[in-house]
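Ticket 4471: requesting a sanity check on a complex prediction with manganese (II) ion. Repro inputs:
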Amino acid sequence: MLNVDLHCHSTVSDGLLTPTEIANRAHQRSVDVWALTDHDEISGVAVAREVAKSLGMQHVGGVEISVTWAKKTIHIVGLQIDETSPGLVQGLYDTRHGREKRAMQIGAMLAEVGIPDAFQGALRYVGNPDLISRTHFARYLVEDGFCSDVSDVFKNYLVEGKPGYVEHRWSTLQNAVQWINGAGGVAVVAHPGRYDLTQLEMAAFLDEFKQHGGVGIEVITGSHTPDQFIEYAKVAQQYGFLASRGSDFHGPGESRTELGALPPLPPNLTPVWHDWF
Ligand code: AMP
Ligand code: MN
Ligand code: MN
Ligand code: MN
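Returned structure tokens:
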């Protein structure tokens, strides 16, 4: 059975390894089919493809787009994309815009609760000046002793109702799906179990996603518990969605889940890669 891992991050967004390093690591961990899916960025994809090819590993063009739907942040993964598609390139450029201003606001809010210089601090961890994320703040807060680890940060800071939370408008759901489809790709809901949506809201969201041309959801992801593997396998069947598998690996020591190490997709699902090879 193919070892497929279609979700991870490099230094081009908020991962700890470069695209080259992560390609090598995926290969070492016996991944056969691999996608790099940086947040709102495709500038690592060409290198990822080249290195994957040199290793004899099947590469899939990928991206993870930040979306605001009903005031909630949702992530949509695009797979099999042509990363040179002008609509996608422009859309992602627009989506990244505003991250720096948001980061300065996060820094100012943290200063109010006694954490000085967090913007400068977060910048130390940024690999791509175009893509400063909450993860970079989290690393700073851990390194400088304000929190014990990254998940401690996301319990006490940077999230709704806590210091350092800044509301932000990302792409619309419709635009994200259209950019992906316009680039020849397929749109997949990232880690559906992670969103703070009621059952009704989730159903409305999935209906809308499908109407706009979305075709898949992640079932096996590093963000799901084993119970959620089963829950979202059922959702995939109910909605007729293709199923995806991805670790959401961000780096050694930081991610719960290693590249290629998750269980396989449950039976009776159609893998999102079913017609790719
Ligand atoms: P941003 O796009 O700047 O809002 O940052 C989102 C990123 O923060 C996600 O992609 C994760 O890498 C990270 N993140 C969010 N929530 C958590 C959490 N509870 N634990 C660890 N990392 C998280
Ligand atoms: Mn991330
Ligand atoms: Mn995500
Ligand atoms: Mn991710």
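Notes from triage: DSSP finds ten helices and eight strands in the chain. Leaving this open until the requester confirms.
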